[in-house]
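Q: Focus on the shape:
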Amino acid sequence: MNNNWLNGWTRKLGEKRLAMAMTAMLLAGAAHCPAMAANTYTASLNGSAADRNMMKSGDSVIKEGGKKDAVIYRLQDGTAFDTKMGCVKFLKDSTGTINVGKDGKGTLKVRDRGNGGNVAFHVTDRGNLTVNGNIKGTVATKGYSANGIAMVRYGEGQGDTAHMAFNGDVVFWGSNDRPEKDEPGELPGWGIQAAKTNGDVDRRYTGSRWAPAGVMLGMASNSRIDLNGDVRISVRGNGLVTDPYYKGTGGFSDYDSAIINANKGDVTIYTPKSGKTGYNAIASYGGTINVNWAGKEPGAHNVVLKGNILATKTWIVDEKGKDSGYPHFYRDGRVNLGLTTGKSSLSGVISNGGEVAGEVNMAVRNGAQWNHVAYSLADTLSSDTMPNPSNSHYEPYTPTSFVNVLKGGAGEKNAGIIFQNDKADIAVKEYSGSVKVVYRHDGKGTSVRDYRGGDVRIGKALPGSEIILVTDNSGIVATDRKAVTATLKGLAGKLYYTAAAKGEKNLAGKVRIAEGLTAVSATQAFGQLTYDARKNGQGRLDEASVRLTNLEPLPTGVIDTPEKFRADRTATVTAPNYGKGGKLAAMFSKGASSKAKPMVVDMHGHSLTMDVEGADSKGVYGIVAENGKAIKVSNADKKEIRISAGSRQGMATGIHAGGENSSIELEGPVTIAKAETGGLLAGGVAAEGKNSRVVIDGPLHIEHVTADGVTTPENVTGIAAKAEGAGVIVRDAVDVAVEQGHAIMADKRGAKVAVGGGGVIAGNVNVDGNGAMALYARDGRVDVNVTDAETGITETYKATEVHGDIAVEPGTGGEINLNLLGKDSYWEGFSTVGKKGSFNLTLKNGAKWMPLMSYSGSLLEDSEIRVTKLTGGADADHAGVMDGLMDELMDGRPIRIDNYSGYMAVRYDHDESDPTLFTDRDLRIAKAAPGSGIKLITDNKGIRASDKEQVNSVLNALAGKLYYAEAISGINNLAGKVEIAEGLTAPSAAMKTGNITFKSENGQGSYVEVEEGPVTSGAIVESEMLKGDRTATNNEPDWKINNYVSALYAKERNSTSRQKPMVVNMNGYNLTLRADSDRKIAAAVFVDSNQYIDIKNANPEKKLAITVHNADFTAANGIRLDGNAHLNVEGRVEILESVTRGDSANGIYIAQQTAEARFGGPVKIRNVDGKRFRGAGNNVTGIYVVGDDSKITVDGPVDIADVRGTAIRTSGAKSMISVGGGNIIAVKDPDKKSNFYAVRVDRGTININMKDGAPGTESTVIEGDMFVTDETSKKVIEYTKGEKFNEATERGELNVALTTGDSSWTGVLAYDEYDIKLGGDGSGGYIKPASGKLNLYLRDGATWNNEAQGHITTTTVPTVVGDRKLMATYGGSRVAVLHGGASDERAGIIFQKDERDIAVDKVSGNLKVFYAHEPAAVTAAPGVMSLRAALPGEAPASPIAIKGGDFKVHAAEAGSKITLVTDNSGIVMTDRDSVSGALNELAGKLYYDAHTTGEKNLTGKVEIVEGLTSASASLKLKDITFRDEDGRGQYIATGDEADSEPGGSETGGTTGSETGGTSGSEPGGPGGSETGGTTGSETGGTTGSETGGSTGSETGGSTGSETGGTSGSETGGTTGSETGGTTGSETGGTTGSETGGPGGSETGGTTGSETSGSTGSESDDGDEIIEYGNEETQIMRGMKNVMASTALMWRNTSSDLHQRLGDLRLAKEERGVWAKYKGGKISMNTQNTGLSNSYKAFSVGYDLPVGGNWTVGGAVTKVDGDTGFTGGHSDNKEVALSAYGTLLKEDGQYLDLVVSRSRLDTDFRFRNDGGYQLAGEYKTRGNVFSAEYGKRFVKDKGIYVDPSVQFTVGKIKGLNYSAASNLRDSKGDFKHLHVDQSGFTSAVGRLGISVGRQADNYNAFAKLVLAHEFSGSFDSSFSADEEPQNSKTHLDMKDTWCEFEVGGSVNMGENTHLYGAFSRSFAGDATNKWRIDAGVRYSF
């Protein structure tokens, strides 16, 4: 029995109950129905393009180009799924990518809650899901099956390879940050939970074999889940689980069968803390789980696991090769876990037991901790309480944590830590590195029994390993050596080193007593270990090695020698201790040290606090290094370093490097709490010696720097480099505030201070007028947030604040660089720059400069406010901002910018009483980089928008605040705009904008209103910014440019350069160029030698249009470049015409060497022609490069057609043309006498749709032959007349990528070939091919139609060689490398229609080659076809002869595959010999040359594709051989063939798969449900008896029944009975079993498929398998979609007028006319349909009251629909005439009646996988009658409730018609498909409820409807010429669904009102995804 329908209706029933509950709410009087939140979905994504029907605004789904059935979802950040049976469910063969938010960085919220089988992300067989974005969600069920992410088989036994990748964070976490509880019912702490965690098998079961999981991989065959971000999961169950269940296919080892990778982010997993049930953070029942472990070594991410670990291993192999996991319990499992950071930990034991311990490999190092204690019940399998027969397959738990490999740290410093707190031993097979094991003890710890934890047992150790056993000092007198020794002896006995008993000496053992049991506790005593070989290597204390360390107190004074901290360290100094002058320092190097060998202070995970106080006038330092000494402070754990330095009169400095070559390096964070003195000098961080250096790798915070006696700001600094070559580097954020001096200063030549971004820098924060700066440079350099490899700083977008002035001291060569890159970053203050200095400021993405005032006082009061270089944003949307330019000092000083680039927005304030008065400072820009832009903005205060004169005056005054000096010289690189905004906030709307014009006399900006409209003028000859649409025309030659006629060129020679090109900025407008000549060469754009021209166009909607016409016989060029010319064009380019009266015409042309043209957008070329046509098209091109070493690049797609020559051509040596795909269409050449090519390469290279040497993904269509030649050889032949012959020095190269399903090439690879007789006596014949190199990528359904389109060779007249006439010949297409697809599904397609061979030097990937055929020649009597029976060892005779040349492959890459295909015309598909003979005939078209030399990289297959009504067949050439003598393919079947008819059983039974049927399973597991077994797949599955599914016994096996199918056998299976039997599988029948793998149910059983599937037959001894396809062909399925779309659209519109009558009731209207629009989308995906119909309709009508409360009327409606489905589409049209009437009684009752008659017209076109198309049209009629009754109950305030019932009945007339195909019959005529289509009757009932409110001038309502279709089915019969089958299809559209509608109307006047509604349906097989109605009525 097939349960698919039951599962589907269970889901629908739940939805319908929800709808009925909503109805009940409305009946109770609810005034409104709240709508769902935007971007929240309650239905699942299913990996189908049909999901587009559920997408809401802002979200979308599209098919992925080039991939069959693959889809891409684009979801907004924050999109949510709130479902009951899965949020994302990619079932079999579904492939898709989900992109969340911008650039895939958003968050997708998921919640799935229900009663069983709940999962957020679910993928099954061959599914492939990629999620780009973060996941955050929860999953809960009232049953037992709940998973966050699950990959499980879909009822086909082992399943098949699948893949999931999550490129972002994955979070399933509840509301409690530290969940622990393990209780039934929903708990807020768990992200994933179920009411039951025991699989619902037995309440006594205490394991978690079938518990919920965070990530569950239940597939085999190398399936994989990649978690490529942070993972955070709290689950009342298991964390990460692999459970391949079956062994799988493909020959993969158990370890490779299923893989979970969590290697690219932090991992946190919490499971319940429980003493009753065992849970695993990681569990591998087969396969491999990698956590922070990629390849052979662990990673460096943080990992926190709360839960046990399990890995299983099969442990018995019997005589039949069956192991303990057979057939479906578990496999060999592996866990690789890397705990490698100080923040990493594991709390749990390893739960595998005894000899069945799986492989667990761990790294514990760098302070990571393993708390070895059972976090939940240690025995997580609990096999003793498992149900039978499972328990017999699992060994009992042994209380030992088995570790295969344990990797410690590199030495004790990097050791990992194990807290041995569990009674279970830890057994390690292989040990390396260093690990500390911490034990608690009872009493004094003198006996092994005193230690609570189990032993540590190490099998072998790698050289250099060490282990340290530690216990605390509780109960021990640490100064008592005897007591300490006794304790250490007891501790030593906890370790066993087994290999030591055999002499291995690789493990150094130590024992210690520490102050406590924390990882960093100080050691009080220690000793060394030896090992007792007699006691299996047990540890034994070497008593002589015991040392006591507790007598040494912790230091608190100065640090002047290398030191490793044992605890948090303080260094307090109050008396002179440093230097001869009585200075004080907390840290200095007492002994010798240098940069190469610094004094090292290792903080070892502790903090450091330094406090230095000097009572006299001596200097005080926190850290000091002088006279070449060096200090390095290691602080890997980033503990705080805090410094306080205070002096009564002397210098106080936090960190000081003085004297030449001194160095201080610290790992931060560093805080300088104070550096204060009563004297003159104070500093936070200072480098004051020549080439001295201070480096802080971490953030720096300077809180307080003051000097009471300060006289100059240079004496009080936050950070300073004050000597030649001195440097201070801070590689993170700096927070520094200095009250009396410079915050950051670089003084002296070569001095440098570089700090990272993200902090606050403030100079002179409390004192005015002393000249103190935020940033100050005098000869030195200051960098803030500047990327620099030398300093190790990378710029950041974090908020960076600078408060105070910035100065480069006048007269010096100082430099300051400040980068502010985000909207939260800003600088407030002035700046001054000396003549030799520079201040470079970068402001992007909304970062601000606010020059409000000077903080430093007199120093800047008389100086220029100046910036040397200001860099703005990349465009206007990312501009920097200047704000607050007010002139508070009233000194009139402008702000000067020497060099400007990018985009800035400058905000100005004006006087509200006089808006033309701006008192803010002027902005003066000296120079601007090309393409720069600036906008001046003011608000609208005091401005009347209606006063045009005032607005223009304000804009002119605003423009006058900007000066641009280069404009005086005629340079115009700066595009200025002025704007009046509604406010001065960023999102304010513009009230008025305009362009700035700069005056030539002084560069001041001005605004003059320009009337909008196009501008027509002469040629553009210099840089220009367009101010409107521009047309530039020219018809006169200019002698300065070689007498060319051009519309755009640089007038003066040598006037441009790479740095200063001529720039034409289109500025958001269109530019049209026209060159008309009657006597000289015409080129609309001409770039002369050595010239540089840039055409900028940032608006993709605007275009550069070019037209060229030459009435002379000279050339016409759209764009021409001469030698070393350079052209760069942004945006769209259209060359509409380039025509000459002569011969030479080009679209884009490079005539000379080393020139380059780049086009950044799409390029369109049309109508290129040389009318005289000498050369037969040789002189006409769309794009052409003649010059050597020249290059043309088109980044966008091209669209080239109507070129009477070659579309794209290159002939220059080392020249190159690259285009980004598109359409390249050659002119048709029906007479084949002209040189018309799509592409031609004489020399050089052409790339089409190639990106950086790899194939691109753009759709590309090429029509026409492509010519690639060996130009040098060709010219030698033509010009030397054969007297001298040289090999070519350069071959032409063509690289073409056809990589999408809509990409194609129609044509041959053309070249010239000559037969040359070089010997004087006629000997020495030599054929020289002049072909170049074609590299063709053909994949993902792209096609190559190999059929000549033109003359092929380039010569139409012979070449004379001696006394002979030599004619170029052609021998068929030649391809150097042909790259196919990655799989059969992604194969490229070739139609071999040319009689000449296709020769390929090398093949890779998968390709399909299609051949046509004709009937074979026969020798029998007329009218009788005779095929002689095949002799033994001989292939059957073929009924066909294949047309087209051979396909010859020289060599192939490994794994390559070629499938040869033909159609089934003339083949008796039910006759095995006929089919086999045809297939073998087809096989002979393939040659594989390298086979003759032993290469075996190529495999083959031949296939007969389905016809219009007959199924397909394919012959797998398992042992295809290639003849040794010539490599030709051949196949001869051997052995007896087993007969089989296509189609299976009489009623459509299905066959099992090759790998076995599906089995019922143990309860739970991945993908299983609580209540049933596993269903069969759509393409197969197996069915049992007539009365139900087949159930096996508890122990397996399969049973048939007398009334049903029979079980299959190991040799192939038996076909089922007439009533639905099925064939079994190769490996056995179908078993139902309690002991199945995850996913099944306790009662087992499997169901068959919905659609029959394929049948096959197989020879026991032979090699030949013929596979027959689905009886319902693709053509028939396409027709079913066409007919269903017509019926659905008609049914959807059949009751439209009821909505109109509802409008009448609501509006209480009189006589009137009305018009209405509606549009919507319908989808259907069931019963082999998969369609999406979009429609729009227009109706007009008239109605009037006729008395007796009746209103009647009539209407006409026109509907247009467009339907898409796999392989095609249809256009649906309907015209309907309707009459209607409504009765409305005073008590609210109403009756609506409608009658309608429609004409339906449908056009369709589609094709199948074989490339055969079907097109046609049919017309029919439909009639409808509908009635609706209801009553309105009116409540207070106009609220009403309106229940109703409606019934609609209608019928579409049946008809017979034919459709034309391009499939030919045996006579060469096109076949027709004949369709006999029955009528379609529809009977729909609806129950509805409306709630609304009606007021005087409006009404609003909401309506909910439950609908049911009682009829709605139709049958179709199909027949086709020469095809024996007369096939039928059936479509049953009976269905139940719900509809929801909201709408209303509003009065617009006495006689006019508008009305509208939005509706959608749900819960049906066919759904109205959305629908909008809008109308207007006029009453009279």
Notes: The first strand starts at residue 40 and ends at 41.
